[in-house]
Amino acid sequence: MSRSGATLTMLLIGGYRSLVDAAHVELAARGYEDVRPVHDFAIRAIASGADNASELSRRLAVSKQAAAKTIGVLEKRGYVVREVDPVDARRKRLCVTARGFDMLREAEEIFDELRNTWARQIGTIQIEEIEKHLAELVGTDPLRLDTSGWLAQDLSE
């Protein structure tokens, strides 16, 4: 059976969307009903050092205004806080709260459960083969925090 490159792309996006949608439903059931996929990317970026709106906007490939809006939402919902920078007291820096880290851990656990569900459907060896081949194609560290901004990017920008 011959398939096109577009079909492969749509299957990969469909798989991603299927996993993310299922994880979103399960996160809500576990008390994180206010989390959206972009929030996961933002919290991970903040945890890895994006401690202000400018840096977060660069890491997520979104406008500074979009980053500031996301920060406001995450702060209001208790996933991040602004703290005084220990090096420069005039500066506030973003920090992930315990609730934010708890949500990330829950999400990782959910994705493990979803992977196991897929493995039961098609077989553990087949899942491992898919992962092995994807790692060969995209590298072993495929996480791009700018994915959400990239998906929403307007070509006229």
Any overview of this molecule?
The chain has 157 residues and is mainly alpha-helical. It is 66% helix and 6% strand. It contains 7 helices and 2 strands, in the order H-H-H-H-E-E-H-H-H. It has a two-stranded antiparallel sheet. Strand 1 and strand 2 form a beta hairpin. Helix 1 (5-29) crosses helix 5 and helix 2 (37-47) packs across helix 4. The longest helix has 25 residues, at 5-29. The protein is elongated and about 60 Å long. The chain starts with a helix and ends in a 5-residue tail after the last helix.
TL;DR of this structure?
By secondary structure, this protein is mainly alpha-helical.
Largest sheet entry: 2 strands, antiparallel
- SSE run: HHHHEEHHH
| Amino-to-carboxy terminus distance | 40 Å
Residue runs with pLDDT of under 50 for 5 or more positions? none
Tally the helices: what do you get? 7
Backbone structural class: mainly alpha
Please indicate the percent range of residues in DSSP E strands (runs of 2 or more): 5-15%
Q: Spatial order of the strands in the main sheet?
A: 1-2
What general outline do the C-alpha atoms trace?
elongated
Residue-averaged pLDDT, rounded?
89
